[in-house]
Fold this protein.
Amino acid sequence: MDYMDNIRNKLALLPDLPGCYLMKNEEGTIIYVGKAKVLKNRVRSYFTGSHNGKTQRLVANIVDFEYIVTSSNMEALILECNLIKKHMPRYNVLLKDDKTFPYLKITNEAHPRLEVTRRVIKDKAKYFGPYPNAYAAHQTKKLLDRMYPLRKCGVMPKEVCLYYHMGQCLAPCEKEVPKSAYEEITQSISSFLGGGHEAVKKDLQKKMQEAAEELYFERAKELRDQIINIDALMEKQKINTADTKDRDVFGYAVDKGWMCVQILYMRQGKMIQRHSSVFPFYGEAYSDFISYVTQYYSENPALPQEILLPETVLEGTDTSGKPQMAVSSEAEGTDTEDTPDDVAEPAAGDAGEAEAAEAATEGTVDAAGGAAALQEWLGVKVLVPQRGLKKQMVGMACQNGRVALDEKFRLIERDEERTSGAASSLGQSLGLESLSRIEAFDNSNIQGTNPVSAMVVFIDGKPARKEYRKYKVRSVQGPDDYETMREVIRRRYERVLKENLPQPDLIVVDGGKGQISSAIDILQNELGLYIPVCGLVKDDKHRTAQLLVGDSAEPVNLARDSQEFYLLQRIQDEVHRFAITFHREQRAKSMVTSKLDSIPGIGEKRRKLLLKHFGSLKKIKEAAIEDFRPLSIGDKLAAQILDALKDEEPSL
């Protein structure tokens, strides 16, 4: 093939240098970005030899590639991170916006506030974190709000509020608060969040005793509660270290094309939290793991004093979290405090396996190289410990990753058993010998405009998305749900007969007796098909309420908490989602078309040309007059187009 000849020519020119490579599909879209310490070795490995299933899915879509040479592994690491953020490739490990970690923030204002945020910007505020989840961040904020009287309100009120009377605000709305008071509070919060909670506890205990001695029992009780809250929040630990360094301990596990990354947060020598991420990966495991770590720290303003990374872990680690093969780490960025005496060497019988593993990862960034590059970039110590407590901590993180993956696979197996069992039980309830394939239909329109219909397919209780179909309604004018159902059922099953496609065991329509009768009439009287048809009726809250079967629309009693009823709900929700999404797309296109058609001098040909060239109505509105010239549209007409669109509302 032409594209393979092009790839072979490019492979012959690859340099023996570090850098990044960008894999593209036939549309020219970047689908994967990777890094390599030797581009020549790494990129060639995609097009030679055999691959496992997950990598095959990636390689099957590659028709071209580009590469960018860097001067070091560190530059390749940072460049890869930036390219992933820019292109969001389908097959890369991505830390998406909705997965960003929460931070505590002391705002940079005349009267500062303490708040939880996921956006870290350069606004001279103080950030603390990241926290593994929003609950941990809000619980910490709740405790600090009780202890330190910073402003709570978003907009300054005209009079003091309840927080002032509770001693949790300095009331800057009514009296002048010196800057030194805020600086003292900010310093105390920084000290507390930096691990100085023991000193805060001692101070609170002293104040509690003084309040009790002076018979201020209510105040003593408040202080006691604060101490209890500190204990509950800060003393949830599993491992202690002799020093008081802040560390992030990373571990990962891989199995069946999935990766789990675990982060253990050590603060002041104590493990206080952990975070777990599970996702599919398609590249080389350790390289994708390092990509995750790089993205994690790329916008993290609160770096620990030390980062611990694992050695290379092969697929199939045992439940103790120990890798089958360890990688020596005698380079900058490795743990110089722990000697590498216990680095595992492959046994004589495992030599072939070790060589195969080395060949598979040739050209990739290894443990030592990844740690050294991260250390150079972040400016903090990054270690790959070889023995001792730090090695145990990393092993604990890896073991937690292994357990999380095992749990995920067990849940998937359990869900598959339940869904296939639900389909079988539903078939029995309907008197069917077997119920494997279900096809469901839903119609969507707004007052008869842009009528569409959609079909989804469920096989053994699971959605088969590649078999979903969309229909633009052709023959029906106005909001006639019955005629729409007749048209779509006719079109679908005429094609099934013509192309000898699989016939469903059950057809599900959205609606009651009218929709069921319309479908059965077309199937039996026009097409000679006798496929069972049922309808799903919704209640006044638009929730699945009842299952009706046959032309007589007899109700089938299913327990609302049964797996069969849950399966029907999923089917109805899925087909409705698919139909309404298609309808919105058509409505938006219709609105764009009508707006352009209303402009004098713009016919169907020019409308299509404009949309193809600019991509959307929004881009046309943002264009300059000279941008229309390549389309053979003169400046006068271009000005008329922009004037006509200037005051229009944006399309949906």
Notes: The longest helix spans residues 388-429. The mean pLDDT is 78. The two ends are 42 Å apart (CA to CA).
